[in-house]
Structure formats: structure tokens, C-alpha cells
Write a structure and sequence with these properties.
Blueprint: H1 4-25, E1 27-32, H2 42-59, E2 64-66, E3 73-76, H3 83-93, E4 100-105, H4 128-134, H5 139-170, H6 192-215, H7 222-241, H8 248-265, H9 272-279, H10 286-289, H11 294-302, H12 306-312, H13 316-325, H14 331-344, H15 348-354, H16 357-369, H17 375-387, H18 393-411
């Protein structure tokens, strides 16, 4: 928490930077309206990063994030024609626009373009300047309202990213033994509807994991907290599916990634995947805690670390899959990405279904090298997988997580890779 002098000094430094930029090409800044002396609360970073992402699409420029005692601010070194009107519309009409300041500085101008009227207080509707001057509302009351609205908004957005990631994977056809809209695949206890029941059961818990990461003081606190939430998610999933395992692996992969994203987004700097490594640094200890699990046995007899080894490394295959997806979320490209994932990770679902290492390696090779542009070859290999009870559930979890994270990366200006 900063004192008034530090906040004023930070504002002056930012003002000088903005003035220097605006004298060349104009500038646009994005800041959060945070009451009280602590301008660096987690919600401040979420707000700034989110509106920076929105403005980056409009301005078609990459911003610079500044941080200081007056909180985070993003600066664009250009001032497109008509941008002030768009900025005002965002402030007035966006669900959480009341909590952001988007200022526009014309070329050779050291003052922002006026919106022409004073903004309203988000509690009583009176001019905000008057309420601030008269200290009409206690700071804690203002912060409570801000946190309530912003967390509600971002909770919906995160949940939407999770849902879309899961559904984009589920809606693919001919997936080498996985459940699709028209097939149970190799799963007698699952189908398209049951998978969606499971999604509805687990998404609220996964969304909470995002906020567990956001509220953590350091990465080492996160794993045990999300583990408890994950256990609750598993119970909810089993209740929704009558005991069938639809997304146990995704609860882990998605939960870790979301908590790492929350932790990263609520700060001035950091990389999501680097924080995954920190969160999962001691995860191989699970094999000692649960020595009878299939994963522990695979690790003991074959050295296969499965999803935990992937997590310790920072989920590099999720990161690569995100890059493969880019802006092409067509079924062809997603299937190609899925085949790539199969070849790159230790899929313990595939290993367990294969029955022995040789069969596991054979199917791993077949799936990862099949031409996903050849519909007949993909269909034939899928039929073969179903006939031999083969499934690649672990790889499906990674694909769904990569799609989810790609969608999340579009919501916020941050280092996701």
C-alpha cells in the first residue's frame, strides 16, 4: 500500500511518459478507477489487462504496461480518429466500464480529450468528483462494490472460456476412441449428453480455481488450495455422471492452468506457464501419497510421469498447442493439434487402455502420424481404436485446455507464452 506522496509521484512519472509519447503520435491510456491508497489490488490488473485487450483490437497496436504506486496503466502510442467516442462508449456501456478510465491524448497535446461531462459515482449516481471530495462513501464500501461487480463479470468470462474449450473438443468427430456428438467411442459409460452434464458440474469449481490463483500471495500456496477444490469438482462430476469419469484429468490440467492464469493476471508481470512450473514444483510427491494409483505404478515400473511430469515442465505441449491453434479453430486444425498432442505427452489413459507398452507405443505412433486431412484414414483408425477399446483421454484434456487458454488469452493483455 502506497502513501499519497508516492501515488502523486507515480502519477507525475506516468504523465511525463504519456506527454512524451503523445507529442509524436498521440496516445491512449487505460487505468482502473480504484478508491483508496492501495491502487495495486488484483482487480486493478484484471480491469486494465481486460480493457487493454479490447483497445488493442480496436487500435491494432501492442500496448506497454506500466506499474507504480498509482497502480497499473497501459499506454498505446497512437490516437486513431474517433477513438475517444469508442472509449466513452466502453466506459458507459460495458458491464464493468464504470471501473475503467480510458484517456485519449491528441498529437502535440499534454492534456486528455474531455468527455464533456463528469462521470457518475458507481454507488449513488451523483458526480463521482463530488462524492470523492466529500468522502460520501467509505473506501471499503466502494471497494466492496467494485470487487463484487468485477469478480462476477470475470467469473462469467472465465466460465465461458472453460465451456467453449470443452465443447470445441467434444464436438470434434472421429477422435480415436473419444466421445463425439454421434459416438460413445470406446466409452460404454459415457456419451455426448453425459459429457455435458459433467461439464456443468465441474465448471463452477474450475472458475473458483482461477480466483484462488488471483488471491494467492505466492505460487507455493496454490496447489493445496486448488487440490481441495479439485476433489469437490470430482465428486460433483461423479454425481452428475452416475459414477463415470468424464473429466478427471481436465480438472487437474484446467485447474492448474486457470490458477496460474489468475495468479499471473493479478500482477504487474510474469508468465503463465512459468508460474505453472512453480505451482507444480512438488507434484511428483503424489506418487508417494497414492502408491496404488495407476499413475504411480506407471511411474514406478516404466518411469512414465504422465500429466504430472507435463505439469512440472510448465505444460509446454499446451503452450505449443495454443500456437498451433492460433486463430484457426476449425475442426481440421483442432484434430491436427490433437494428433500432435498424442505424440508429445505420456497419455496414461492410452497406456492403461493399451494393456502393454508395445501396444501403447504402436497406437501413439499411429495416431500422432496419421494425416488428419485424410478423412478415410482418420475414420479407419478411429474404428480400429474403438474395436480395441483404445482412448486418448489425457490428450483430449490437453487439447481442451489449450483451446480454453487460447480463448482466455484474448480476454486479457498478458504473457501467455
Amino acid at each position: 500500500m502506497s502513501n499519497a506522496g508516492e501515488i502523486l509521484a507515480a502519477r507525475e512519472r506516468r504523465r511525463n511518459i504519456v506527454t512524451g509519447i503523445s507529442m509524436k503520435d498521440g496516445a491512449v491510456t487505460v487505468r482502473a478507477n480504484i478508491p483508496g491508497p492501495d491502487k495495486g489490488i488484483a482487480e486493478s490488473y484484471l480491469i486494465v489487462r481486460h480493457f487493454a485487450s479490447i483497445m488493442a483490437d480496436i487500435i491494432a497496436a501492442k500496448p506497454v504496461l506500466l506499474d507504480g504506486a498509482d497502480g497499473p496503466a497501459v499506454i498505446f502510442d497512437s490516437e486513431p480518429e474517433g477513438i475517444k467516442r469508442i472509449a466513452v462508449e466502453l466506459e458507459e456501456k460495458h458491464e464493468i466500464g464504470r471501473f475503467v478510465d480510458i484517456d485519449v491524448f491528441g498529437k502535440n497535446c499534454d492534456k486528455s480529450v474531455s468527455r464533456g461531462y463528469m462521470r457518475k459515482c458507481y454507488i449513488c449516481g451523483q458526480p463521482a468528483f463530488v462524492c470523492s471530495r466529500n468522502k460520501t462513501h467509505p473506501t471499503e464500501r466502494l471497494l466492496t462494490v467494485l470487487r463484487s461487480y468485477t469478480r462476477s463479470y470475470f467469473s462469467k468470462k472465465v466460465a465461458q472460456c472453460v465451456k467453449e474449450g470443452l465443447m470445441d473438443e467434444l464436438n470434434l468427430e472421429n477422435k480415436f476412441g473419444l466421445v463425439t456428438p454421434t459416438s460413445r467411442g470406446s466409452h460404454k459409460d459415457l456419451n455426448y449428453d453425459v459429457m455435458q452434464y459433467a461439464q456443468s458440474a465441474i465448471i463452477p469449481y474450475l472458475t473458483e480455481m482461477f480466483f484462488i490463483g488471483l488471491d494467492a500471495n505466492e505460487p507455493g500456496q496454490i496447489m493445496e488450495r486448488i487440490r481441495k477444490k479439485g476433489i469437490s469438482a470430482e465428486k460433483a462430476m461423479y454425481a452428475a455422471t452416475n459414477g463415470a469419469n468424464a473429466y478427471k484429468g481436465f480438472i487437474f490440467v484446467g485447474g492448474v492452468l486457470l490458477s496460474a492464469a489468475g495468479y499471473t493476471l493479478g500482477r504487474a508481470s510474469g508468465n503463465v506457464f512459468a508460474n505453472v512450473e512453480k505451482i507444480c514444483a512438488d507434484i511428483l510427491g503424489d506418487f508417494e501419497k497414492y502408491p496404488d494409483s495407476f499413475g504411480a505404478q506407471a511411474y514406478k515400473t516404466m518411469g512414465v510421469t504422465g500429466v504430472r511430469g507435463h505439469a512440472i515442465a510448465g505444460f509446454p505441449v499446451v503452450e505449443k498447442a495454443m500456437k498451433m491453434i492460433e486463430d484457426d479453430e476449425s475442426s481440421k486444425n483442432l484434430l491436427k493439434t490433437l494428433a500432435y498432442v498424442v505424440g508429445e505427452i505420456d497419455d496414461t489413459v492410452l497406456l492403461k487402455r493399451s494393456g502393454d507398452v508395445e501396444t501403447y507405443r504402436r497406437y501413439k505412433e499411429l495416431i500422432s502420424t496419421v494425416s488428419t486431412d485424410d478423412d478415410k484414414a482418420v475414420s479407419a483408425l478411429t474404428d480400429d481404436c474403438v474395436a480395441h477399446n483404445i482412448s486418448i483421454g489425457g490428450s483430449a484434456d490437453v487439447l481442451a485446455a489449450a483451446i480454453m487458454m487460447k480463448k482466455l488469452s484474448k480476454l486479457f493483455y498478458c504473457d501467455f507464452s
